[in-house]
Specification:
Chain lengths: ~270, ~220
């Protein structure tokens, strides 16, 4: 078996990144609070009910949505089901190994899931076919095909756009039997959770960290805001700690950044 | 005559004396890489423009130390395999690991310049440290290994010209890692020259293009 590899930023590169941050810019000439160029292509997969390709710098993520029918969970008999899976493909980076999803991929799926679920983006009570018996199951499959940091935001945007562009044939109860409806319908969307990710690198707070920046950061914080400006999901990563002031600062920054990104996402949806 | 080709594309038909980076199938020569095809003087070749670094014995590479064990250091050389350097090679003699500590020589995160000594399929490749193996600098840049290899292998005048026009110290590895030593202005100029290399596919006019960009940079900086 080929020996595995891991990303390690050299001491020279780390020094270069820190010097650059001290001058108020990143090594790729971005400002500390600038996102990389973002392009979103909705409906990229014909055979999925909804899909999107997101390119955030060199990070690339595809999300696909499939609608199935399942049995509701016993504690939520009158709600549809959301299942989010994420996979970082071996072709995404030379450092990624083939095999089942590792803990990074599992964390990624959970954070995206939490953002969708807790922002109440989809009204799951409207995804019930027969109360307590049959409900729609919304499967969101996320595949990372290019890995250059900030997978959380890229995956979240891909999943959100895929859900917002989803169209499926509803099942209609006709005399006790379920038949496929004649016209496609959209998911009952009622909100839009927007994720923003910040990293703390040597006392500097930066948004949309690249992979190199993530590998030298102290800590990372992902915050999802809903339409009304409420925080609906938070995820902290990295081995280091964040000061209370850092967290408060990031919360403020995330609010303005999420509004910025919300306009981008809404623009994509309106043109889809 | 040159044109851009993709893998599998027919580069030429007929009989040629030599061919590089192409597969001969009957009378057809198919490209193995994305690159620029050149057909002249009875030979056909494709100059790779993208793809990972493929090590060759004798290549000069720059790697990042990712692990230090008593008997060897492992390096990330921006390729599909790691490289490793035996402790003996650093000390230039056979050593007793109980008496000599390799971590006194190299540490994780250090940059090391070395030559590819031995390649075995499915294993890490063996490297021989350069005379000046410790690489120090103020900035590190990555260019496409395919282009770096071409510049390096053809003993191009480009690296020395960049050094001359920017005043920066430069170490270029065939694996696409460029380490620059100099102040911020020099680093910016080198970056601009490297951007020219990255953005062009036609390597023929590259030398003059870089001179043009750097001369313009020098003048605008002076003003």
């Amino acid at each position: 078996m080929m020996p595995s590899k891991k990303l390690l930023v050299s001491a020279v590169r780390k020094e270069q990144i820190l010097k650059s941050l001290a001058q108020g810019k990143r090594v790729d000439n971005r400002g500390l609070l600038d996102y990389r160029p973002l392009t979103i292509t909705p409906n990229i997969i014909d055979k999925a009910e909804g899909s999107a390709l997101v390119k955030l710098g060199d990070t690339q993520v595809i999300a696909g949505v499939k609608i199935g029918v399942g049995t509701p969970f016993p504690d939520t008999p009158n709600e549809g089901i959301l299942i989010v899976n994420a996979e970082i493909l071996p072709t995404a980076s030379e450092y990624q190994e083939p095999g089942p999803p590792d803990e990074d991929a599992i964390e990624l799926a959970r954070v995206v899931d939490r953002g969708i679920r807790e922002s109440k983006m989809i009204d799951f009570t409207k995804l019930v076919i027969e109360p307590g018996k049959r409900v729609y199951t919304v499967y969101v499959d996320i595949s990372v095909i290019g890995m250059d940091g900030n997978l959380f935001d890229a995956s979240s945007y891909a999943a959100v756009v895929a859900l917002l562009t989803t169209k499926y044939y509803p099942l209609i109860n006709q005399n006790g039997t379920l038949v496929k409806g004649s016209e496609k319908v959209s998911l009952p969307v009622q909100d839009l959770g927007v994720s923003t990710t910040f990293a703390k690198v040597d006392n500097y707070i930066i948004v949309d960290p690249t992979w190199e920046e993530e590998s030298i950061m102290e800590a990372r914080l992902t915050i999802v805001y809903d339409k009304s400006g409420n925080i609906c999901a938070v995820q902290k990563g990295g081995n280091g700690a964040l000061l209370v002031d850092d967290v408060l600062n990031i919360i403020d920054l995330a609010k303005s950044k999420s509004e910025e990104m919300r306009k981008v996402l809404e623009g994509v949806i309106s043109n889809a | 005559m040159s044109k851009l080709v993709v893998p599998g594309e027919i580069v030429a038909k007929g009989n040629f004396r030599s061919w590089v980076n192409v597969l001969k199938k009957g009378e057809e020569y198919l490209s193995l890489f994305v690159g620029r095809a050149e057909i002249s003087g009875g030979r056909v070749r494709v100059i790779r423009l993208s793809g990972p670094y493929i090590p060759k014995v004798g290549d000069f590479v720059i790697g990042v130390v990712t692990d230090v064990q008593p008997l060897a250091a492992t390096l990330d050389i921006n390729s599909y395999v790691n490289g490793y350097i035996l402790a003996n090679a650093f000390f230039k003699r056979r050593i007793d690991p109980s008496k000599f500590d390799l971590s006194n020589k190299v540490n994780i995160g250090d940059l090391v310049a070395a030559r590819v000594k031995k390649i075995e399929r499915g294993k890490d490749i063996v490297l021989q440290p350069d005379q000046k193996w410790k690489v120090e600098g103020d900035a590190i840049f990555y260019i496409s290994p395919a282009k770096a290899h071409y510049l390096y292998a053809s003993r191009s005048r480009i690296p020395s010209k960049i050094k001359e026009l920017t005043g920066a110290e430069l170490r270029l590895g065939a694996n696409g890692i460029v380490v620059v030593k100099g102040d911020l202005k020099k680093i910016e100029m080198v970056k601009r020259a490297l951007d020219v290399i990255e953005s062009t596919y036609n390597l023929n006019g590259l030398y003059n293009e870089i001179i043009k960009v750097l001369n313009k940079d020098g003048k605008s900086a002076d003003n």
